[in-house]
Amino acid sequence: MLHGKPTGAIRVSFGYMSTFEDVMKFVNFVENNFVILSSNWSAFHLSSISPPVEGIGKAAARHFLTSITVYPIKSCAGFSANQWPLTSTGLLYDREWILKSTTGEILTQKKVPEMCYITTLIDLNLGKLFLESPRCKEKLQIELKSNSLATGRDEMDIQNHRYEVRSYNNEVDIWFSNAIGRPCTLLRNSGSQSYSCINKNGSPGMCRDVGAKLNFVNEAQFLLVSEESIADLNSRLKSNGRKSTGGQAVQVGAMRFRPNLVASGGEPYAEDRWRHLNIGGKYFTSLGGCNRCQMININPEAGEVQRLSEPLATLAGYRRAKGKILFGILLRYENNTKTKSDAWLRVGEQIFSNGDSN
Hints:
This protein is α+β, with helices and mostly antiparallel strands.
């Protein structure tokens, strides 16, 4: 522009690997450095994109908790509950057990998809963990509070956290080895002995939530996804025309992402803006988006990685940020020791949140 008149145009080209985020970076660059807006229009435009929210008020109660899922053994199937206790490490018994190979490797579905066949169920009244596998004729029961099956103690470092773990007798290890088709051992976190590791230079380790007690989770105590975000992803998958191995359009459910919590209400990806949450009087802090990997391409019903690499490929096209593919948010439970210790989450509770109004 020269004296208010356009004098030319600039062409911007993008490659086939360019993403929506790349386009928006350039648009923001132009707006921030070359576009002068009237104060009235600017205020209207910004408010329509991100309306400011102050505090966690009732006006924000457009979301509800629709699902609670507990995963007792890392990378094995979880079970749903209408209500479940909260502890200082997250949901009670969530990811409290792991399977370890004979070489010391922690096993996950990335390398052992058969782990998704192991179903779990905890009965709090009976105090037992029930396990089933199509590869095992007999069901397995593990006492939650009894050490009758535990045979030893050890310490191990996993993802910059140190844990004191218990091992089980040979009968338990044989059952799991048969269930996944390879030798392995079952280990349980003893609980209070886990703590965050700090590197020699004083910086925290790889795990994002260095300020909380964790069981065998990758980054944080909780993962939350929303039904609206799942629906938007499925719409994009359908538009892409990608087919599964059976010839059907690829569609995914919330459980493909192994969330602890599923929310409903509001717009797709509204959870991206949440910073603090109140779920039925229990408070949580968002630690940001969850970085997704090829594990979400594993079909829990078939136990195999889909050949078309979906839904990760579609997510990579519009949910990439700083080299990561984000879907869902990570949460920390803000456990106040002054409050009662018997806090429970319940399906149907309202979710109040305050977003980032900056």
